[in-house]
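Example 335, ligand S-adenosylmethionine.
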Amino acid sequence: MQTPKSDFSFVETMLMQGVGFSAIMDSARMGLFDSLEQGPLTAAAVAGKLGLEEEPTEALLELLAGMQLVVSGPTGYANSLVAGEHLVSTSPFYQGKALELQSRFNDFVTLNLGRLLRGESDMREEVDDGWGSEDSMTGTLQHARLGGLQDTLALVRTLPDLNESGMLCDIGGNHGELSMSLLENYPGMTGELLDLPHVAEAVGGRIEKRELGGRLKPVGMDLRLERLGADRYDLALASHVLYGFVDDLEGVARMLYESLKPGGWFVSHHLNVAGDLDPNYTAVVQFITRVSGYKSHFIGKDHLEGALLKAGFTDILSCPAGKRRKGLLMAGRKA
Ligand SMILES: C[S@@+](CC[C@H](N)C(=O)[O-])C[C@H]1O[C@@H](n2cnc3c(N)ncnc32)[C@H](O)[C@@H]1O
């Protein structure tokens, strides 16, 4: 009998990882990681707390231990550092809703792949419709808190001569955390959060809850159809938004330049082509992005820098953001 020359096991690994991910999601949904925060617990104790059978619960805990989300010790199972930080619902870095949000995108692609490939389904419309739901906003914010948001805030704090009593705009601001954190940091600053009309309407409650209603105005607009105005802002922010406009970065850069006051800064945060991401992750993200009707989720440093320079921006600076340099931050100033 013939034997194969190549190793097919990586495809089988991917097949099995689907079950592993479902186990993580279900464990988070049923509060398994929350339960384990209360100390090492035996499989019987976990099963008792969650109303499960002991034997399959032990199998689940062993699976999670194999994935390094759970640590097994002499007195039972406990959360690993990564599970304690990202899968316990009271943690500031909880990712439950972020994972649910991405799972919904992935499920849509999986279920509609044939239609997407034949051009019979418009996922961009579906995605845009979803951005204003409470769950999507919370999921988007949870994902931002993995590090990209903190690093963007840190970069803004270093911008030379930023007018701290000026006006900012948070383009595609969604949950509003970037602009709200900046306004809390700069008490003299005011701002506008620009997003699709249904998203701008939905974020109003979050702004009121932070008592920033008098300083941050949500403005509904579709950047594909409307322009930003001229000489209006001291700081323009676009976090994970420019990928929607990657086929006309020069045109967008010109609009951003025009919208700033002289000396004003533009800051972009987007996925980093040169980041240290798992190539399988990058390939699937890019596939989902393209079948959804966007050109690319990643924007190269040279591509954006070239567009900003052509539009007239000066003092360009850039640095990676987040773990594994997943994001790229780039800032430029209007002369
Ligand atoms: C991936 S989310 C980024 C949210 C947030 N800036 C962050 O980094 O966490 C993209 C946001 O851009 C908004 N958006 C997408 N297309 C837009 C358009 N044509 N005009 C205005 N906003 C748009 C979406 O509604 C969504 O809120």
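Summary: The two ends are 73 Å apart (CA to CA).
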